[in-house]
Write a structure and sequence with these properties.
Elements (H helix, E strand, L loop, with lengths): L14 H27 L14 H36 L15 H6 L7 H8 L1
Helix pairs in contact: 1-2
Length: about 130
């Protein structure tokens, strides 16, 4: 099913206003990548001194630590994907336009969450 073009699709945010947003998103990418490296370094499974014949308690601690690392890395990767999507939308001139419905994303939403690529209505619908 082809979505209808909305009149707001032709509206674009001026490049002068997007420059600081782009800069912020790029800095966030760097920050999240550094965080990912730090989190991965803390994975007990990556420890070179790890003993293969641990006690049950130590083994459980390693498993929990590894699981914690995996959850954090998964979250970080989702953040990085969202930042890349927002940067790509800036590049192609579609930043601020909802990727689901094609309507403009509220500027307050973009101010709070500049990496968002969907409007609040579509976000609520997605959560259902």
């Amino acid at each position: 099913m082809k979505k209808k073009n909305s009149p707001t699709e032709s509206i674009t945010i001026p490049a002068k206003l997007l420059a600081p947003v782009k800069s912020f998103l790029e800095k966030e990418m760097v920050r999240w990548k550094k965080t990912e490296k730090t989190v991965v370094k803390g994975d007990p499974f990556r420890d070179a001194d790890r003993v293969n014949h641990n006690s049950t308690e130590e083994d459980v601690d390693e498993q929990v630590g590894h699981f914690d690392t995996e959850v954090k890395v998964s979250f970080i990767n989702k953040q990085l994907v969202q930042l890349r999507k927002a940067l790509t939308r800036i590049k192609i001139g579609k930043y601020g336009i909802c990727e689901k419905c094609g309507k403009m994303i509220d500027t307050d939403r973009l101010a709070i969450k500049p990496e968002t690529t969907i409007c609040i209505d579509c976000a609520k619908e997605q959560e259902k």
